Amino acid sequence: MNFKKSELIKKFGKNIFFQEDLSKYSWFNLGGPANILFKPESIEQLKNFLNYINNSLEITCLGAGSNTLIRDGGFSGVVIKLSPKFSYIKQIEKNILEVGAATLDKNLSRYAAENSIVNFEFLSCIPGSVGGTIKMNSGCYGNEISDILISVQAIDLKGNLIEIKRDKIKFIYRGNNLPDDLIFLSARFHAKNGDGNLINKKIKKYSKEKKDSQPSQIKTCGSTFKNTKNKKAWELIKDSNCNLLSFGKAKISEKHCNFFVNEGGASSEDIEKLINTVRQKVFDKHKIKLDLELKIIGENKKNV
Ligand SMILES: Cc1cc2nc3c(=O)[nH]c(=O)nc-3n(C[C@H](O)[C@H](O)[C@H](O)COP(=O)(O)OP(=O)(O)OC[C@H]3O[C@@H](n4cnc5c(N)ncnc54)[C@H](O)[C@@H]3O)c2cc1C
User: Fold this and answer.
1) In the chain, what are the domain boundaries?
2) Residue ranges around ligand 1 (CB below 6 Å)
3) What architecture does CATH give domain 215-297?
4) 3-class SS at 19?
5) What H or E segment, with its residue span, contains residue 210?
6) What is the pTM of this model?
């Protein structure tokens, strides 16, 4: 590390952590330590940190960790996880909500329901944060976060703040064309009033559909692969006889075979072996290369 630990502590105090175990930050409950984990409390502090690091270390950002597999060797650079100070919802105008990027989708959906604001119902089913959800353009039941977005505020790794309007961003299925090195800080959303009863009904309907079709209370990061143009990833996986595959305690969910699961005691390497084997088997049978929806970060554990 080029930076003295004592200097970083002096500058960023209780918001900086060294060799922090990342497994508790991922829904898989897997992954080695981060060399540096930084949890900024304000935009100013994040800006100072980025200026201080001056692009000399690799930086990645974690939201709620519900779509990220962290490798067993951890992350040798800096992981930035926005602190709860970035979790807020403000109605800044009658028709506009401003939401901090660390806000959980479920909390945003609940706020919208309580205030009879429509089109946030689907977010009740997504266990991510607003920042991760914009990055992934997450969605379900025919909705995506880009449908309700007005603009995003972000910071680049040089510490420059930018505001990007929705119409300047090309959103695609589970992604967008923004540079990978942007950290989203907040977003503005259309707040359209509607019928509170209908909103609650929709949330209940989505939640039941999710419960019926997907596993819950397990260590998973949701869908592993993206659906293809003509077929759902789970159909291809099932049709390639992969649903009973396992490596150690890394298994495929019986309820939804695009959900890979740490049954307790798996390693990230086991999950990756499962990913690679499934991908190969699907390719052998269908000549289709499945693309990962899951993000993978970090390094493999070194053999000693
Ligand atoms: C049980 C379960 C069900 C799920 N169901 C769905 C579903 O129905 N639909 C769906 O689309 N997804 C689903 N997911 C996947 C996941 O919840 C979404 O992709 C979610 O939006 C990821 O948000 P996150 O904050 O957890 O992101 P993370 O996993 O923390 O990060 C994902 C990506 O976003 C980036 N990122 C995170 N925060 C920021 C930020 N502030 N600025 C810039 N980049 C950032 C990360 O660097 C990473 O590349 C499910 C996952 C689980 C575990």
Assistant:
1) 5-84, 87-210, 215-297
2) 27, 60-68, 82, 101, 125-129, 131-133, 135-136, 138-140, 183-184, 220-222, 295
3) Alpha-Beta Complex (3.90)
4) strand
5) helix 196-213
6) 0.97
